[in-house]
Design a protein that fits this description.
Blueprint: H1 2-14, E1 19-21, E2 34-38, E3 53-59, E4 62-63, E5 76-79, E6 82-92, E7 95-105, E8 111-118, E9 121-128, E10 134-135, E11 137-138
Parallel strand pairs: 1-5, 2-8
Antiparallel strand pairs: 2-5, 3-4, 3-6, 6-7, 7-11, 8-9, 9-10
Length: 148
């Protein structure tokens, strides 16, 4: 009985979003950080595998996997200004696709990782939320100076 209840709680919690905050950021001062979110579905709280989710698996080369109640990667990160390298993963059912993107984040601007599914592949890019403009690019094309 206890194990069945534990499994049920794990499924309930796994449908929730997760947020990662880069070290040194004061969340009380909204002008001191940039938010990068993902274009992810959150329609199924219990059977979250049915949603087409995009999560952030690493930030500047550091894994964001979190052990605990939810065993998930975040879908929102709060970062400092500067060049940020993020690895993302698309999950749907038992399928996934990974990519590495970068963005030169600027204070006062927020970004979203977008996806487009075509046949058997997934394209990823980053957009400025306010302007809809594509920013950054794929890893390997970023400026030489990184914010680690």
């Amino acid at each position: 009985m206890k194990s069945a209840l534990s499994i049920l709680l794990l499924f309930l919690v796994s449908g929730c979003s997760s947020i990662h905050t880069q070290k040194g950021i004061d969340l009380n001062d909204k002008s001191s950080f940039v938010t990068i979110s993902t274009d992810t579905e959150k329609n199924n709280r219990i059977l979250s595998g049915l949603d087409k989710r995009v999560v952030i698996t690493s930030l500047n080369g550091k894994s964001l996997f979190r052990m605990g109640w939810d065993f998930v990667y975040p879908d929102v990160v709060h970062v400092k200004e500067g060049v940020q390298t993020i690895e993302v993963r698309f999950n749907h059912m038992n399928n996934y696709a990974d990519s590495c993107l970068w963005v030169d984040s600027k204070l006062g601007e927020n970004y979203i990782v977008k996806k487009e599914i075509r046949d058997y592949f997934v394209m990823f890019w980053i957009e400025n939320i306010d302007t809809g403009e594509r920013v950054g690019g794929i890893c390997g094309s970023e400026p030489s100076k990184k914010n680690v």
